[in-house]
Design brief:
Layout (H helix, E strand, L loop, with lengths): L1 H35 L5 H8 L3 H7 L3 H23 L5 H18 L1 H8 L9 H20 L9 H17 L6 H12 L15
Helix pairs in contact: 1-2, 1-4, 4-5, 4-7, 5-6, 5-7, 5-8, 7-8, 8-9
Length: 205
């Protein structure tokens, strides 16, 4: 009886260590991928985590699986932010903050930026999470539409795609630091036709 209890405790301890090691690897990979992007070698991730390269592959079948795990966590965090913003009293402020959060994430995380810019079929394993993000974005859009604050033809999928376009547009100019300007242009473009960012009727209408 006593021996069985000790063995059971040892198994739990080993499993807890494995969970901690996996979490440590994911954190290290997130840090390295954010800095260096998708082309970073597995050895660099192992070095950051302070483990041997083989340890990485004991937890993840491939580098791609590790990358998907890291990026999935980032998408989940962005989706959680969107859900929180559903409680924001001003629907337009909520939508603006969501869009800003997505653009800012690309600006500070190179791997996320690269994945966001890639065609969906090039990033297997993330389709369901992207769909969930689009669905939550759609809720934010509908609230803003009900308030008459954004275009009636806008969708959550449009917004997620436009977040990518805003940062990629800045990168295309050779000056990624201009992304706040592109973000402001994007947000203004969400308003009903004929209004500027302050809701005033434009002379061009």
């Amino acid at each position: 009886m006593l021996r069985g209890t000790v063995v059971g405790e040892e198994v739990v301890h080993v499993r807890a260590d494995a969970v901690r090691n996996r979490e440590s690897l994911v954190r290290a990979a997130g840090s390295v991928l954010a800095e260096s992007g998708l082309d970073v070698p597995v050895a660099a991730i192992a070095d950051r985590a302070g483990v041997a390269k083989g340890t990485v592959f004991r937890h993840f079948a491939s580098k791609d699986e590790l990358v998907v795990t890291v990026v999935a966590g980032l998408i989940d965090d962005l989706a959680a932010r969107a859900e929180t913003l559903l409680a924001e009293p001003d629907p337009l402020t909520a939508l603006r903050e969501f869009v800003a959060a997505g653009v800012e994430l690309q600006a500070r995380d190179l791997a996320f930026c690269q994945v966001a810019a890639a065609a969906e079929q090039q990033v297997p394993g993330l389709t369901d999470r992207r769909l969930r993000l689009e669905q939550i974005a759609d809720l934010l859009v509908r609230r803003a539409q009900d308030a008459g604050a954004v275009r009636a033809d806008l969708t959550g999928r449009d917004v997620v795609g436009l977040m990518t376009a805003a940062y990629q547009g800045a990168c295309a100019t050779g000056d990624p630091l201009r992304w706040p300007y592109f973000l402001s242009v994007l947000v203004d473009g969400l308003h009903p036709t004929g209004q500027d960012g302050a809701g005033r009727t434009s002379d061009r209408a």
